[in-house]
Each structure stands twice: as structure tokens, then as C-alpha cells.
Amino acid sequence: MAVITNRQYREKLKEKGVTVANDLTRKQASVVAEARKEGKVAYFKRETVDDPEISEGYFEGDIDLNMLRNAVRNPLRKWPDGIVYYVISSAFPSTTRATIIEAMREIESDTKHGSSYCVRFVQRTTQHDYVYIQKNTGCHSKIGRQGGSQELSLGTGCEGKGTIMHELNHALGFWHEQNRYDRDTYVIIHTDNIAAAHQHDFSKHSSHDMTTLGTPYDFGSIMHYGAYTFAVDKSKPSMSPRPGHATGVTMGQRLAMSVQDVARIQKLYQCPVDSIVNCNFDQDMCGLSQDSHDNFNWERKAGHTSTSNTGPNADHTNSAGYYIYAEANGHHRQTARLLSSTVSAGHYCLDFWLFQHGAQEGSFQIRAAGSRIREQAVKTVSGNLDNAWRHYRINLNVPADFHIVLQANMGYGDLADIAIDDFSFYQGRCL
């Protein structure tokens, strides 16, 4: 009896009017054909409790480590002109190859500034240095450009676009977020639930072998691991956010690069950064200017506001930094306004945290204004909210050049402070 390949078997089914996906095996294709004949649903189960990014023998689970640990700091580890040459193994089915290319194009698109690309993934011809993407065991990659052919493995379970983007970010030169040298301010590592063999996977880097590029800690980064990574008892986390952090954020997400992921690639490869404002207010007002036609000014503040039972007790970023706020005391029913620089028409995202708690609150507004558009409120938050920081994301599509106004409309008494922290304003849709 002649042996036929999976592809030949699919072709025979196609001749009978049954089309199945190219990445199915002959056995799976047969199940699909039989199910369709009987009007039933065909399904295949693949259940696992293992994280495909956790491969035994690799640093932090998926990093192929050599002695060049300062990949991010060492300019030799960056890809010249931001061009990453690659070869994709023929062992991958066409669907996986398409997903790999899609992941590359998404990174290119997300980090693109106007018509200029920041990084590009280009198929290798004769180049000496390139990433060889192979179907080996688990998901793992080297950090940055290493010279010659360097392996990036996408084994079983690693075929999702988000996981591929995670490994490609390693190849571009990025470590894991939870191993930053400042991570203890943001997360608790539960060492009692981590096997001794994996304790080193939670070791912090020093400022000598990595840099944060001046960006804040990001629970939503595609480079952050989930709460149960390396956990011995899978019912308990190996890592958890410190109280007051990661509210409304999925830690360990593999859906898309975050705002900070995009900004870091742009900064590392010295491209224009899309964020017009990306500020935790720890140093200054980040280019936001006071409106000279309002009643009083926004201020930078650390710790609690001067009046009890209103305003935050600490900033949102790490509880030890700064935020900006409008002080109600002495400014009843008055208005404070901050202005951004003017930007061109298009799609933009506003991402920020707001603290608005007090018995005599007024309202906070995001307003859009410009010489060719009438000033208008695009978001109004009124009244006394929770005694906590609240997260807001706003998509804008503005038809003419404009600037953003942060406007605090104070209430009728002292219990009406309004505060803002971790404010980002960037081109494109909210990620």
C-alpha cells in the first residue's frame, strides 16, 4: 500500500469538496471530513499546564544566555540601522510562517513614526548576522544581536502572535520586565512558591547590564511574565503586584505591545518616540504648560494633599514619586488648565490615572482645542468618585491641528482636590 503525505491527503479531500486547514495532520483532516459528513463539530484538544515560554535550561525561562549580558546597554548588541535579518525554518507549516511574518509587521507598524520605520525585519540573503527562527523545544531567544546565525526557537505552544512578538523583542535587545533592578517597588516575588532550581530566574539585573531607558515599570508589557510563572503550587502566584499597583492591567498579557514596549524600541534604536507626553511627573511637567488665562495653576506633589478626606495619599506610579494636582483650598469654583503642544490632525490616544475623591468635588475635563476647531470637552468626569486612582483611556480622531487641555473645575469647598498621574498622549489608537 502506497504511503501518501498529509498534503496529498488534504488534496484528495479537496477533490471531494472538503477543504481543511493546511496545518492539520492526516488523522485530524480525516476527523474533520467525517464530522462534516455527519453534520457534527470537529475539535482537537491540546491541554497543558505548562507555560511554553518556560524552557528548562534557559535563563529566566526563555533567554538563551551567553556572557554578553549587557545586551541592552551595549550598542554592539543593537541591529545596525534597526534591520533584523531573519531566516524562517521550512519545518514550520504555512499558517505559522504567516503568523511569524504578521508579528514582525505589527512590531514594524507599531514603532513606525509617520512614514519612517524604526525597526525592520528583512529576509536574509547573504548577511552574516541574522536570526534563525526554528521549530525546536520551547520558546527562547538570545538578547540582541550576537553575531552570525542566532537561534530563536518557537516550539509547540509558541505559535501565538503575542508569544512570537515577545521572543522577537528579546532578539531586538530587551530583557523581561519583572527582572528590572527597580522591580521590588512594584511586585512581590513569592520565593516560597518557587523551586530552588528556578530562584535565579527571578534575580534582578543591575543597572550595569540593563537600562530602563527612562520608562516606568509596566505590568502590561508584553515582556512581563504572568503571576504563576515558575510557581510550584499552581493555585498560588509566584509573583504578585504590590498593593495599589497593576489595577485594571493584565500582568503577562500576550495580545499586543504596550505603549511602553513601543516607546522602548523607539528609544533604544534612537527613533522619534510617538508619545507626545509620557509622564509620571517625577522630574517635571513633561512639556505641559500652564494656561495664562485660567484662575490658578496645577502643581507637582509628593505624598498626600494638604486637606484631609480629599485627594490621594501618594502618587500612582510607585507611591513614592510625584503627581500633579489642582488644590481646592482657596480656589473654590475656579478653573486650572494645562496645555499640551500642538499636534497635527489624526488618531490619538490619551492614557492616564485620575484621583477625584471628596465630598465637594467639581469635575475634571479633557478638552481639545485649536485654531481651526472649536474647543470642546471630549471627556468629563464629575463628582465624588472612589477613594482610589482610576484608569482612563480615550481614543481621539481630530480633523485639524489641535492641542489637549487638562482642565480642573473646582468644587464649592476644600474637599475637592483633583489629581493626575502616569499621563500618556501619543499618536495612534490606544493599545
Structure description:
The chain is of the alpha+beta class. The chain is 14% helix and 25% strand. It contains five helices and 18 strands. The protein has helices at residues 6-15, 26-37, 94-111, 161-172, 259-268, and strands at 83-88, 120-123, 130-134, 139-141, 149-154, 187-189, 239-241, 275-279, 289-290, 299-302, 322-326, 335-339, 346-356, 363-370, 373-382, 390-398, 403-409, 418-427. Strands 8, 10, 11, 13, 16 and 18 form a six-stranded antiparallel β-sheet that branches. A hairpin with a 7-residue loop joins strand 4 and strand 5. The radius of gyration is 25 Å and the shape is globular. The model is unreliable at 1-6, 44-49 and 56-71 (pLDDT under 50).
Summary, kept brief:
The protein is of the alpha+beta class. It is built from five helices and 18 strands. Helix 1 runs parallel beside helix 2 and helix 3 crosses helix 4.
Write the layout of secondary structure elements.
Layout: H1 6-15, H2 26-37, E1 83-88, H3 94-111, E2 120-123, E3 130-134, E4 139-141, E5 149-154, H4 161-172, E6 187-189, E7 239-241, H5 259-268, E8 275-279, E9 289-290, E10 299-302, E11 322-326, E12 335-339, E13 346-356, E14 363-370, E15 373-382, E16 390-398, E17 403-409, E18 418-427
Parallel strand pairs: 1-2, 1-3, 3-5
Antiparallel strand pairs: 4-5, 6-7, 8-18, 9-12, 10-11, 11-18, 12-17, 13-16, 13-18, 14-15, 14-17
